[in-house]
Amino acid sequence: MLLLVLLLELTVVILFFAYTDKIDKYAQQDLRDGLHLYGTEGNIGLTNAWSIIQTDFRCCGVSNYTDWFAVYNSTRVPDSCCLEFSDSCGLHSPGTWWKAVRDPPGPRPDPRRPQ
């Protein structure tokens, strides 16, 4: 019985590593599809989650800020993507936005706290 459990666990681990890339691609596409719900009626939880994630992790979109271009016709990103938070900062040039998911760490003011 113990051998059966061990073989089952080993099989699960092997399958996990064999399909990691496929799972990653599906997850990224699902997240990109979910960007279209950002800011829409009845999706305040999703909107807040994206805003918090982008603010706390200093990132923009799933891979980078261009993920939002499909949502906003290449004209803007959410304000939570901005290096320095201010109202409507997502309308400015890409030089004011987080570029990628893995931007270098550094201090960032909390947009929810007054300066």
UniProtKB/TrEMBL annotation:
Membrane topology: Multi-pass membrane protein
InterPro entries: Tetraspanin/Peripherin, Tetraspanin_EC2_sf
Location in or out of the cell: Membrane
UniProt KW Transmembrane helix keyword: yes
Pfam families named among the record's database cross-references: Tetraspanin
Signal sequence, start to end: 1-18
Gene Ontology CC annotations of this record: membrane
Keyword terms, alphabetized: Glycoprotein, Membrane, Signal, Transmembrane, Transmembrane helix
Record-stated family: Belongs to the tetraspanin (TM4SF) family.
Descriptive protein name: Tetraspanin-4
Taxonomic lineage: Eukaryota, Metazoa, Chordata, Craniata, Vertebrata
